[in-house]
Amino acid sequence: MFPKPKSVLAPNTYAYESEPMVKATGFREYDARWLFGKEINLMGIQALGMGLGTLIGELGQKKEIVTGHDFRSYSSSIKYALISGLLASGCKVHDIGLCMTPMAYFAQFELDVPCVAMVTASHNDNGWTGVKMGANRPLTFGPDEMTRLKEIVLGAAFAGRGGGSYEFHDNFPSRYIADLTKRPKLKRRLKAVVACGNGTAGAFAPQVMEAIGCEVIPLDTELDHSFPKYNPNPEDMKMLHAIRDAVLENKADLGLGFDGDGDRCGVVDNTGEEIFADKVGVMLARDMSAIHKDAHFVVDVKSTGLFVTDPVLQQQGARATYWKTGHSYMKRRTHELGALAGFEKSGHFFFNAPMGRGYDDGLISAIAVCEMLDRAAGKSLADLKNALPKTWSSPTMSPHCADEAKYGIVDSVVKHFEDARANGDKVAGQPIRDLVTVNGIRVTAQDGSWGLVRASSNKPELVVVVESPVSEQRMRDMFEAMDSVLRTHPEVGEYNQKI
């Protein structure tokens, strides 16, 4: 008998040490994320492991699972608490130790194991923890699995039968690195800044990029779980500006920035200008569709409209499907459609064969960018970027909004713009040309300028992105139009960054 988790327990009490605490909001759309100590305790993590093992059994999957953890001061202890729950539920656990998230995904294939539980809070600030889970490689959980997992854990409805077993796979990273680097070396000697924000990727990214033929300039690759300079997040302008400075100082061909768990990659060109990941996706789509006939790509709703309007992609017969933002949604859709690749503005890229196995891996993305440059004889990354039709794009901007309130506010914003279109009202001074509501709302004006509002899937935030093919001012007009609607809701707080 295992006690039902409580939503709140006071630290430094008998109850906190003897009962599980699990806040319900930590079960998000496709990942689990909590503030460790405030929203979940170690016994709560144990309950999560028991619940995950129970769910794996319900799904009819073999009870065998890969575990690993990212580089934070508390991640290994959380992983071992999770493992204790998995063992209690009868799982055979394959532990690969400290690793990047894509290394855990790779281990599912390499070790022929169906399930995965990667302890990571990705790019979230210190204090956060979480688990990325899946039971059908290369896919990860979606809302249905997360809802059922939440029911099992919060109701303590565990099918605990014991009989689990544990195996640690020594020096597993060498197998992952060998798999990534068994490809022809680059013909072109590229000088690359490799930035890791002192996160997990620092232990692996420099040697991988060196092995494919790059001259590596390491930047903040020393492991330091205090993240002394900036959060390892390649959407964060602080990280991008640090990469810019290193590129210019070293006259590098490009800069590559990896997030805290290594499944995303940010790119800075040889002039020091950051290229938002959706534009990198368009460049890669051009390169790949020139090689692969009738290429199909999946892109998220935060991404540039160039995937549909770019004349080179049109000429090469490439087509794009827009889909929900979120690594789990995008991975699943790319898999279902058999697309060549999926691109998300956050930097999660999903390559199917021949480039990858369908999961998101920041190092595979970095290799794809380098191989694109290798094929573009005599051209710099800035040349490839400048060859795209000009658009003005914002970074991802996130105003604070409580988990309990954010989805209701997004529903209200959707209704606002649906009513506006029905009434013939204008947005940013122009008629509404199109609304996409597959994930929040993407509002496109008559001139092609657009703005998006959606709820963050893994933090108490909303997400706002704007773009215009016309001018910077029109991009700003769209931001004002979206933000003015959000400001009617007092629950919406300050932005993490703004244009």
TrEMBL record:
Which keywords fit this entry according to its UniProt record?
A: Isomerase, Magnesium, Metal-binding, Phosphoprotein
Group of enzyme by EC:
isomerase
Q: Looking at the record's lineage, which domain of life comes first?
A: Bacteria
| SUPFAM superfamilies named among the record's database cross-references | Phosphoglucomutase, C-terminal domain, Phosphoglucomutase, first 3 domains
User: Can you give the residue ranges of the Alpha-D-phosphohexomutase C-terminal domain?
Assistant: 423-483
Example GO molecular function:
metal ion binding
Q: Which residues form the Alpha-D-phosphohexomutase alpha/beta/alpha domain?
A: 26-154, 176-272, 278-390
What InterPro entries does the database record attribute to this sequence? Answer: A-D-PHexomutase_a/b/a-I, A-D-PHexomutase_a/b/a-I/II/III, A-D-PHexomutase_a/b/a-II, A-D-PHexomutase_a/b/a-III, A-D-PHexomutase_C, A-D-PHexomutase_C_sf, Alpha-D-phosphohexomutase_SF
Please provide an example of a Pfam family that matches this protein in its UniProt record: PGM_PMM_IV
CDD domains recorded for this chain?
PMM_PGM (cd03089)
Q: Which Gene3D superfamilies match?
A: Alpha-D-Glucose-1,6-Bisphosphate, subunit A, domain 3, Alpha-D-phosphohexomutase, C-terminal domain
For biological process, the GO terms are: carbohydrate metabolic process
Named cofactor requirement(s): Mg(2+)
User: What are its E.C. numbers?
Assistant: 5.4.2.8
Q: Which family does it belong to?
A: Belongs to the phosphohexose mutase family.
Q: What is this protein called?
A: Phosphoglucomutase/phosphomannomutase
